[in-house]
Design goal:
46% helix; five-stranded parallel sheet; globular; Rossmann fold; alpha/beta
């Protein structure tokens, strides 16, 4: 177990449409796992808190949130969950989705979490991935997100900025999962990757 100032963590990595959010929510239902999506953390931040004001000073202007601030927001959120009794660092393993997004965040996260496993959801078929994202946008009634040019750009940004995160971790921690399967098959493979890496107690 990590020390009092560090948390056990599993990373869910994958490009847009890989299904990491879906898988994170499901496995986060296990008794000793807690799913934390950075997007949800950002959306739920208290705008009146000092850290919330700092965050909004970037987000409301359309600027990227600095890596250092992203990690502080994450740590602040986890500490609030601990105070509320929703996370017990001695028992829970955090399932992280959407963080780290950059190699710099990988370095900063080392001061916060001990990464036990890195699960990388892969869709090699770009056309199948685009079709999945188009379908998801239509179901969510977000026609702008169904634009192929928008989707292609999201994939390119991921490959350029976030894909290097995978290579920043020791290959011994890395488990590759084929995300181009039905969700239950992906869940089976993700769960198989985690056996032996999280507490077996319930």
């Amino acid at each position: 177990m990590p020390g009092a100032d560090k948390y056990s963590a599993i990373l869910l990595l994958g490009g847009p449409g890989s299904g990491k959010g879906t898988q994170g929510v499901i496995i986060g239902q296990m008794p000793n796992l807690v799913h934390l999506a950075m997007g949800d953390i950002f959306r739920g931040i208290d705008p009146n808190a000092e850290i919330g004001k700092e965050f909004l000073s970037y987000s409301t202007k359309g600027h990227l949130v600095p890596d250092e601030l992203t990690i502080r927001v994450f740590r602040h959120h986890v500490e609030e969950k601990i105070r509320a009794g929703e996370i017990d660092p001695a028992y829970h393993t955090l399932v992280l989705d959407g963080i780290p997004r950059t190699v710099e965040q990988v370095k900063l996260l080392e001061g916060v979490a001990v990464v036990k496993r890195v699960v990388y959801l892969i869709m090699e078929d770009r056309e199948a991935l685009i079709a999945r994202l188009v379908g998801r946008a239509k179901k969510s009634d977000r026609p702008d997100d169904a634009d192929r040019a928008v989707i292609e750009n999201r994939i390119d940004v991921y490959e350029r900025e976030t894909r290097p995160v995978v290579d920043a971790y020791n290959k011994k921690l890395l488990a590759r999962v084929n995300a181009d399967q039905p969700p239950l098959a992906v869940l089976r493979d993700v769960a198989g990757c985690l056996v032996g890496y999280v507490s077996a107690s319930i």
